[in-house]
Automatic annotation (TrEMBL):
Belongs to the class-V pyridoxal-phosphate-dependent aminotransferase family. NifS/IscS subfamily. Residues 6-376 form the Aminotransferase class V domain. InterPro entries: Aminotrans_V_dom, Aminotrans_V_PyrdxlP_BS, Cysteine_dSase, PyrdxlP-dep_Trfase, PyrdxlP-dep_Trfase_major, PyrdxlP-dep_Trfase_small. GO terms for molecular function: cysteine desulfurase activity; iron-sulfur cluster binding; metal ion binding. This is cysteine desulfurase. Its cofactor is pyridoxal 5'-phosphate. Its EC number is 2.8.1.7. It comes from the Bacteria. Keywords: Iron, Iron-sulfur, Metal-binding, Pyridoxal phosphate, Transferase.
Length: 392
């Protein structure tokens, strides 16, 4: 067994940052620890003010003129995506009965794509928009599918497998030109790159992608947007998402967000430089490893995701051999880790199955030092060479 493990699966779940851990500890030692923020007594009101403070911090970090009241706390990105797709589509149809179609990209997270059968059961037609070979969903591709029957369009801000940043500002304008609402899943992009949200109606977030706790997320949705609640049993979150909120987790989420945005550009530059060095080494001539997209390391990619393939090999074998050497990576979305088939994202990009089966996603933030990335590169190159029967 390795003496230490190098964790390189931050896109699945990032370790909690110091700021979030400190916020949790401060909450636990405070007098509002355990108080219900919906109670009318003094401690309840104090807990509610603390919750609203977290809401303000998240809205400020989001930008795009989102208000604190627009932020709905959820259990994570999956629930936020579910609430957005069901709630916004049904709300738009309630307002205009012609709006019976939903447009989503073919590279969305499973928490959106798995909603499609249920949307159809509720009377919606669903249209999928494909990315180009580099994994970019263009505004023109979305525009071709728009019409007066579209209730909602949803395209993620950055892909969770490839790290490719999507032009959501342009796509939102294309959706609005047809009178449709627009939602983006920004769970991977939030806190990593600047977001163009001025024309976006709703945004999904997940705390554990930025060093916050697992089990809390948010859907920021503008007050003018129709949203039909999808669960019932209380008036919390202005009746849009019932259930007693976790003040502890909300404060930790907000603390992690503040830490990310304290020096967003500087951190991105540091991480991007490490990603560029890792990509150059892995995908050099004769390595047998190729990048999944030709989009260069830069603004078009999330700084901390390196997506590569070893054509002819299978990712499961590579992941297990890397694990034996103390390196923790994944093949793609952790929510699909039980699947032995090729990634739906790479398939949608037109990558042949035999190549996509050898994909790996390496993800990290500024807390992973260059030495660990260099050691990982040496291990992967050695493993790939051994699997191919070559020497390196």
């Amino acid at each position: 067994m390795p003496q230490r493990y190098v964790y390189l699966d931050y896109a699945a779940s990032a370790p909690m940052c110091e700021e979030a851990l400190r916020a949790e500890a401060d909450y636990e030692s405070s007098r509002i620890a355990g108080a219900n923020p919906n109670s009318l007594h003094t401690l309840g009101r104090e807990a509610d003010r603390a919750l609203d403070g977290a809401r303000r911090d998240l809205a400020r970090c989001l930008g795009g003129s989102f208000r604190p009241a627009d932020v709905i706390f959820t259990s994570g990105g999956t629930e936020s995506n579910n609430l957005a797709l069901f709630g916004m589509a049904m709300g738009a149809r309630d307002r205009d009965r012609r709006r019976t179609r939903v447009v989503v990209s073919a590279i969305e997270h499973d928490s959106e794509l798995d909603v499609i059968p249920a949307l159809r059961d509720r009377g919606f037609e669903v249209s999928l928009v494909s990315p180009d070979r580099d994994g970019v969903v263009t505004a023109d591709a979305v525009r071709e599918l728009m019409g007066i029957d579209v209730a909602l369009a949803s395209v993620m801000a950055a892909n969770n497998e490839t790290g490719i940043v999507q032009p959501v500002g342009q796509i939102a304008k294309a959706a609005h030109a047809a009178g449709a609402l627009f939602h983006t899943d920004a769970a991977q992009a939030f806190g990593k790159v600047p977001l163009d949200l001025a024309n976006v109606d709703a945004v999904s977030l997940g705390a554990h992608k930025i060093g916050g706790p697992v089990g809390i997320g948010a859907l920021a949705i503008r007050g003018r947007c129709p949203l039909r609640p999808q669960s019932f049993g209380g008036g919390q979150e202005q009746g849009r998402r019932p259930g007693t909120q976790s003040v502890r987790d909300a404060l930790a989420f907000a603390a992690a967000a503040r830490a990310c945005f304290a020096d967003l550009d500087g951190t991105a530059r540091t991480v991007r430089n490490r990603a560029a060095r890792l990509t150059e080494r892995l995908c050099g001539e004769g390595t047998g490893i190729v990048a999944t997209s030709n989009v260069p390391v830069g603004p078009g990619r999330l700084p901390g995701i390196v997506s590569v393939m070893a054509p002819g090999l299978d990712s499961e074998t590579l992941i297990l051999k890397l694990d034996q050497e103390g390196f923790e990576v994944s093949a793609g979305s952790a929510c699909s880790s039980g699947s032995l088939d090729a990634s739906h994202v790479l398939t949608a990009m037109g990558i042949p199955r035999e190549q996509a089966l050898g994909s790996l996603r390496v993800s990290f933030d500024q807390r992973v030092p260059q030495d660990d990335l260099d050691a990982f590169a040496s291990a992967l190159l050695r493993i790939v060479a051994a699997e191919r029967g070559t020497t390196r």
